[in-house]
Design goal:
Number of domains: 1
CATH topology: Metallo-beta-lactamase, Chain A
Distance between the termini: 32 Å
CATH architecture: 4-Layer Sandwich
Helix content: 25-40%
Largest sheet: 7 strands, mixed
CATH superfamily: Ribonuclease Z/Hydroxyacylglutathione hydrolase-like
Shape: globular
Order of helices and strands: EHEEHHEHEHEHHHEEEEEEHHE
Number of helices: 10
Number of strands: 13
Length: 268
């Protein structure tokens, strides 16, 4: 069975109500998490969290607004690549880096893994790759975070075997089997939050875990079907799809057979 190791690589702050409607104006801390997934056949890094590259590329100019709207706190000692090295894991030990989507707090460490095979939503990347200026900023995408040779190392998950999911993962019915994971890592589409937004079901010794990425920012969202502030719709790819995905998470939660992990789950 697979194991999941959780890393925190910096955090941002925001008013609670932006993440959970009705939660008030108190300022909350939202950690940027990355996950190391060890399966019988491969080792995968799910997202990268923040990194010094994010600070460098949002220090001034247009993209400094990213940090003004969501203040970011990051210490170089928190870089995922450094945390992995401290555990004796080198970048070449990774089967792949898997990106849930292309917001800065998920891809900021990509340059630390340059040349490592990177898996992503091909459709999402096609919608994102040419964004520049204000259009990129509105989508939470910082072009400078992308390594120069990125496309030579990337693989679209749409090319992986599309399979029927186990019944206990309902209402999710189909996903993509990660090559080299021996069925212990199944990638699913969680549309709405961002272009090409992905999640992953991981088979662990204690049961299935869904890495739900940014499909919600608080467990209360999927447990009680309470969305974020309507202001958050501005940065969403498709608000209607976001709420459809949230309803699916609610049904999955009520089924009681899968644990749900959110990337930015804060103290709401």
């Amino acid at each position: 069975m697979a194991t999941i190791t959780v890393f925190e690589a910096g955090y941002c702050t925001h008013a609670a109500c932006m993440a959970l409607r009705g939660a008030g104006m108190k300022v909350c801390r939202f950690p940027a998490r990355a996950y190391l997934i060890d399966t019988a056949g491969g080792r995968f890094l799910w997202d990268t969290g923040y990194a010094s590259h994010f600070i460098d590329h949002t220090r001034s100019g247009l993209f400094s607004w990213y940090r003004r709207v969501t203040p970011v706190y990051f210490d170089e000692r928190e870089a995922v690549a450094r945390q992995l090295r401290e555990r004796g894991i080198r970048t070449r030990d990774l089967t792949a880096v898997i990106l849930s989507h292309f917001h800065g707090d998920h891809i900021a460490g990509l340059r630390d893994f340059e040349g490592t095979p990177t898996w992503l939503s091909g459709a999402g990347w096609a919608d994102t790759r040419l964004l520049k200026g204000i259009r990129a900023l509105r989508k939470g995408f910082v072009p400078g975070l992308i390594p120069p040779d990125f496309e030579s190392s990337m693989t679209a998950i749409e090319g992986f075997p599309r399979i029927e999911l186990p019944a206990e993962l309902a209402p999710f019915t189909h996903g993509y089997a990660a090559p080299g994971a021996d069925g212990e890592l199944l990638i699913v589409e969680l549309p709405g939050h961002a272009a090409g937004h992905l999640g992953a079901f991981v088979a662990t010794a204690s049961g299935w875990v869904l890495l739900a990425s940014d499909a919600a920012w608080s467990p209360s969202s999927y447990r009680e079907l309470v969305g974020p502030s309507r202001l958050a719709h501005i940065i969403m790819d498709e608000p209607a799809q976001y709420y459809a995905t949230l309803r699916m998470l609610n049904r999955l939660h009520r089924g009681g057979r899968v644990s749900i992990c959110l990337t930015h789950e804060g103290a709401l």
